[in-house]
Amino acid sequence: MFLDDLQAQKELYRKISAKKRLSKKEQDELDKLRRLYGIGDDGTVPTQEALAELLGVTRHTIIRWKKDGMPIEPGGGYDPVRVLEWNADLFDRQDDGEGVNEKVKWDVAYRKFRAKLAELQYDREAGKLIDLGMVKDLLINRAVEIKKSLQSRGRRLSPRLANKTSEEIAAMLDEDTEEILRVYSRPNDLVKEGNDG
């Protein structure tokens, strides 16, 4: 990211942050960085999205900065160096050198969270997701139904099993087991809704 490479050149970064005049060599270094990141010859990028990407923030942050008075070039573009000069404290590294300040870190985390939330919302609306509570209720209800069916099996089958041979009893038990499995493996409306999307 442009900002990271700029901050890596500590003296150049410090001078820009302090709004000090750059030497010819420092100006050449800055121009080299600008070319590397596709920043125009005039030192600007045309869109808020491009500026946000260069500085490692969200477009929402750029919009907020714009409302707060962030500099905009006469042609409508954005000069990332002038933006840095305007709000240098936002990009200062922490004293321990572990990375960008907390505001930028949380801004990036928030952007990722919003993207994941939008993805989940889309999947839910597309029918790819089923509510966890509904699935738990379905499984509990099916387990209770199977338990009751198995517990009533003796009362239900004992009159039919009297005076039968062991082969007939085995066949009747197998038939009853198949019926239990057929009844409780039936599709559920919840599963149908999830597969319709």
Q: Keyphrases for this structure?
A:
rod-shaped, single chain, 2 domains, 197 residues, mainly alpha, 0% strand
What can you see in these coordinates?
With 197 residues, this protein is mainly α. Helices cover 69% and strands 0% of the residues. The protein folds into two domains: 2-100, no CATH class; 132-196, no CATH class. It has twelve helices and no strands. Helix 4 packs across helix 5. Mean pLDDT is 81; it is low at 93-100.
Blueprint of the fold:
Layout: H1 2-8, H2 10-17, H3 24-36, H4 48-55, H5 59-67, H6 80-86, H7 88-91, H8 102-125, H9 132-151, H10 153-161, H11 166-184, H12 189-196
| SSE order | HHHHHHHHHHHH
Largest sheet: none
In terms of DSSP E residues, the strand content is under 5%
- The class by helix and strand makeup works out as mainly alpha
Helix content: 55-70%
Number of strands: 0
